[in-house]
Design a protein that fits this description.
46% helix, single chain, six-stranded mixed β-sheet, alpha+beta, globular, Cytochrome Bc1 Complex, Chain A, domain 1, 421 residues
Length: 421
């Protein structure tokens, strides 16, 4: 059995994804949250709220008690905020699964958001933001999303604005929690050494009191930004760039074709970007192509770090690979290798109970139906060369190119000419 899905009387989904090959259990709670659900005056609330849940509830009343409970049995716990969801998880030896549920439910149901802790955490988040500012290979990817999605919540950093971070109060956190942390906007996932009956019993005992109805809907995405370039001037040793195009959303019938296209272009060490630019030209240490897939928007991007003096050369070479792919298509051998690579990576990842919880829980939260691993592989295998070729021909065109750069350059006109030449 790949997974089972049941619901508590509150409507809260309890998803169980058992695995015989592990001694661990991951309990992961997904919530529909993130920058997509925020207004301008709330930017960063979902991420700040994620931090505040670790400040304690009724039973585990502070950060030390929360962490000591999990550390005391060698477990792992963390949280993350993306643009369409937030997640909270504990990965733990199977015999301690009740403790995992106890800690997570106390955090999520009974968080009190003490004002003095809010004030302390403001500084932590500002430092987190500065860390990303000082890590250009991450920052440039955020800049690209701001460029392509514009002033839409999909284009906003999840970390938020300093204005909001420095001004939110206890009642703001409670309001945000009440609006989104509800049974109809969440899923509790158990993965690893556990069966459905046990998961349902734990779900009811620890999460059965989660109540309310979702009060916030996200703004649909309609149009990509028309700006072509985003330059952030910074005294770095390398120039870091992301060069890409608008792509297809996760709900698109071309979703898997886009995934495979990105692997062929730059998804691994046998990809075109890696062999033709890194290996053949010695131009960069890292270069990779990836996709961003949101429910109603997407992008295909290639990121690289290059010497300042070779930035233009790198841009021209990446564009060349895009245009050759659009013109000539891919080979059957490339498609077969990409399919086997994707399936192999998923197979390896799903040996980990945390990855297993993520794979199934995210689907339950966001998608109309959950694919088993077998269903997923069937969709991958179904993609034809003609479908990938047609997608490449449509999206990898000069007029759709967008470029974000962090480095010493500040001449936008020069780069816009490069994109259109």
């Amino acid at each position: 059995m790949s997974f089972s899905l049941s619901r508590l009387t509150s409507g809260l989904p309890i998803l169980t994804a058992p695995s015989d090959g592990t001694a661990s259990v991951t309990v992961l709670v997904f919530i529909g949250a993130g920058s997509r659900y925020e207004k301008e005056e709330e930017r960063g609330m979902s991420h700040f709220l994620e931090h505040m849940f670790f400040k304690g509830g009724k039973k585990y009343t502070n950060t030390k008690e929360v962490s000591a409970a999990i550390d005391g049995v060698g477990g792992e716990f963390n949280a993350f905020t993306a643009k369409e969801y937030a997640g909270y998880y504990v990965k733990i030896a199977a015999e301690h699964v009740e403790l995992a549920c106890d800690v997570l439910s106390d955090m999520l149901l009974h968080a009190s958001f003490p004002s003095k802790e809010i004030d302390k955490e403001r500084g932590v988040i500002i430092e987190e933001e500065r860390m990303y500012q000082d890590t250009p290979m991450y920052r440039v990817a955020w800049d690209f999303e701001e460029l392509i999605f514009g002033n839409h919540p999909l284009g906003w950093d999840t970390i938020g604005t300093e204005k909001v971070i420095m001004s939110v109060k206890q009642e703001d956190f409670q309001k945000h929690k009440n609006a989104l942390y509800t049974p109809d906007n969440a899923v509790v996932t158990f993965a690893g050494k556990i069966h459905e009956t046990r998961a349902m019993e734990l779900g009811q005992r620890f999460f059965g009191d989660l109540s309310g109805e979702k009060k916030t809907k996200f703004l649909p995405f309609k149009n990509f930004n028309t700006e072509k370039t985003f330059l952030r001037e910074k005294a770095t040793e390398q120039s870091h760039l992301v060069l890409g195009v608008p792509g297809v959303p996760s709900l698109s019938e071309e979703h898997f074709a886009q995934k495979l296209l990105s692997i062929i272009l730059g998804g691994n060490m046998s990809s075109r970007m890696f062999l033709n630019i890194r290996e053949a030209k010695g131009l960069c240490y890292y270069i990779s192509t990836d996709t961003d897939s949101y429910l109603d928007a997407g992008a295909l991007t290639t990121g690289a770090g290059v010497d300042q003096s070779r930035l233009e050369e790198a841009i021209k070479l990446i564009i060349h690979e895009y245009l050759v792919c659009a013109k000539d298509g891919i080979t059957k051998e490339e498609l077969l290798r990409a399919k086997e690579y994707l399936k192999g990576k998923i197979t390896l990842n799903l040996e980990d109970s945390e990855e297993r919880a993520h794979f199934y829980g995210k689907q339950q939260l966001l998608l109309p139906k959950i694919r088993t691993v077998e269903d997923y592989f069937t969709e991958v295998d179904r993609v034809t060369k003609e479908e990938v070729d047609a997608l490449a021909k449509r999206i990898l065109v000069p007029e759709e190119l967008r470029l974000a750069v962090i480095g010493k350059e500040n001449n936008k006109e020069k780069f816009e000419r490069l994109l259109s030449s």
